[in-house]
Design brief:
Elements (H helix, E strand, L loop, with lengths): L2 E7 L14 H17 L3 E7 L3 H12 L6 E4 L1 H5 L4 H14 L4 E4 L6 H6 L7
Parallel strand pairs: 1-2, 1-3, 3-4
Helix pairs in contact: 2-4
Amino acid sequence: MTKILTIGLHPSTIDYTAHPGLDEATLTARIEQGDAALRAAGFDTVPCLVGADPDEAEKTVRERLGEGPFGVVMIGGGVRMIPEHTLLFERLINVLAVAAPGIRFRFNTSPETTIDAIRRQGSLVA
């Protein structure tokens, strides 16, 4: 089975004023539930939570890549969908493309949609 790297923003990084009804504890619990669901579904995943600083995030991802090889990376919506993280998203895409040639990208919209994102084009992860 293909090993999967899951990258998301660390819950302490998010400005919750822009997300009514969400707080750090709630998001942390949702991420943990998503990770548990992936393991329960039999996926071999390595979680990687990053901060908003592109240099530090790149360093963290490079460290996690040492636990590979990875065939798939799932990058969370917080990294991709919040406009102020565009540079972070670009940096991570470029690091992954160079450091893990051939890696397949998946994108979720929330911790609850991670399994669906990974299962798309399932033949790549089985």
